[in-house]
Amino acid sequence: MNNEIKFEDAMKRLGEVVRVLENGEASLDESIALFEEGIKLSKRCTDLLEKAEQKVRFLQQEQAEISEDE
After folding, report:
1. What burial class does residue 51 get, using C-beta atoms within 10 Å of its C-beta: 0-12 exposed, 13-18 middle, 19+ buried?
2. Can you list the residues of the chain whose pLDDT is less than 70?
């Protein structure tokens, strides 16, 4: 899996993986591969959300410091 995949694309693919797994039509080997892909996609989404949250906190802190200086 590409570590440069965007959040929206990762979520879309994760949804597709979940639908296939829930459908139960994949073979055992396919299901295991899809499950592994789903785990990686989930981690990627979590990482991207954490980075976004850190950026928002940084921007809020920066804005608060600017406001204090005025």
Report:
1. exposed
2. 1-2
Contacts 24+ apart (CB under 8 A), 13-20: 13/37, 13/41, 14/38, 14/41, 14/42, 14/45, 17/41
pLDDT given for residue 1 in this prediction: 65
Rg from Cα positions in the chain: 18
Boundaries of every domain in the chain: 7-69
| pLDDT for the residue 28 | 97
Burial of 10 (0-12, 13-18, 19+ CB in 10 A): buried
pLDDT at position 26 is 96
Residues, the chain, total?
70
